[in-house]
Specification:
Number of strands: 19
CATH architecture of the largest domain: Alpha-Beta Complex
Number of domains: 2
Family: Belongs to the FAH family.
Radius of gyration: 18 Å
Largest sheet: 12 strands, mixed
Order of helices and strands: EEEHHEEEHEEEEEHEEHHEEEHEEE
Shape: globular
Enzyme class: hydrolase
Strand content: 25-35%
EC number: 3.7.-.-
Pfam families: FAA_hydrolase, Rv2993c-like_N
CATH superfamily of the largest domain: Fumarylacetoacetase-like, C-terminal domain
CATH class of the largest domain: Alpha Beta
Protein name: Fumarylacetoacetate hydrolase family protein
Helix content: 10-25%
CATH topology of the largest domain: Fumarylacetoacetate hydrolase, domain 2
């Protein structure tokens, strides 16, 4: 199944199922849910009912898609998780997982604008497979970790390279408002195999990244298992699982994103997200709407 969060004509944000071309609003089927996190937490109760939905009547072209989860409790990302990406930066693949966090204010919609910040012109893209956690748990084995995954999305770990690399702590360069677009929907784990899917990015229709998820150094289950040794993972937590080679900052010369550029990130079997770069204006504040 594919779960979406959407609005129509500037109205309230709603939840629905999609077949990839149209939406079945959950409220039309008598399903009362407060948020996407609520759906995930109640999945064992709702799954059978949602599986009965067969009429998708609201065209995707008539709605605005929002990030599937507005305010995740955690947005986490792993670094250098493709050997080819480490190599293009002159590094060896890491022997241990390298983690950073992105704040909830970084969350952005799958087709919303990405702002180039006023404090930097070194704006870069990173297409990533995104994992959505489905259960509250701790200290998972690798096998149990796979069962804790609710679903998958496409993401772009937008990075401001000079802020990322000026110190040993990369957090600030990963933390700018709106720099974690993901979506376009959550594809549930029973409908997608993350083991070997194509992963690609394009800037203005020019391909920049192309790889397969089978080339990850640490696969999705290994990532979730390790995180669970450190913290309680919770329904709706968002994990960016790493990017392949081809980022703009490691091109010769470096090629940064500029206002007007259109970045498309896609994962085979999950669809794509596409965002236009715009210049940030002083005083702008990100608003992602209702929680969850």
């Amino acid at each position: 199944m594919k779960l979406v969060r959407f609005s129509q004509g500037g109205g309230a944000q709603r939840l629905g199922l999609t077949d990839g071309s149209a939406i079945a609003p959950l409220s039309n089927w008598g399903i009362d849910t407060g948020s996407m996190i609520d759906v995930i937490e109640r999945w064992s109760e709702l799954k059978a009912q949602l599986a009965e939905i067969s009429e998708f009547t609201l065209p995707l072209d008539d709605v605005r898609l929002h990030a599937p989860i507005a305010r995740p409790n955690k947005v986490l990302g792993i670094g250098l998780n493709y050997a080819e990406h480490a190599a293009e930066g002159g590094m060896q693949p890491p022997s241990e997982q390298m983690w950073f966090a992105k704040p909830a204010t970084a969350v952005n919609g799958p087709f919303d604008d990405i702002k180039r910040p006023v404090v930097s012109d070194q704006l870069d893209y990173e297409v990533e497979l995104v994992v959505i956690i489905g259960k509250r748990c701790r200290h998972l084995s690798r096998e149990d970790a796979a069962n804790a995954i609710f679903g998958y999305c496409v993401g772009n770990d937008v990075s401001v390279r000079d802020w990322q690399l000026k110190t040993s702590q990369v957090f600030l360069g990963k933390a700018f408002d709106g720099h974690a677009p993901f979506g376009p929907w959550i594809t549930t784990a029973d409908c997608f195999d993350p083991a070997d899917a194509g992963i690609h990015s394009f800037v203005n229709d020019q391909q920049r990244q192309s790889s397969r998820t089978s080339r990850m150094v640490f696969d999705c289950a290994a990532q979730v298992a390790l995180l669970s040794q450190v913290m309680t993972i919770e329904p709706g937590d968002v994990i960016f699982t790493g990017t392949p080679s081809g980022v703009g900052g490691l091109m010769n010369p470096p090629t940064w994103l500029v206002p007007g550029d259109v970045v498309r990130a896609e994962v085979e079997g999950l669809g794509y997200i596409q965002n236009t770069i715009v210049a940030e204006k002083i005083g702008e504040v990100v608003s992602q709407g209702q929680n969850g």
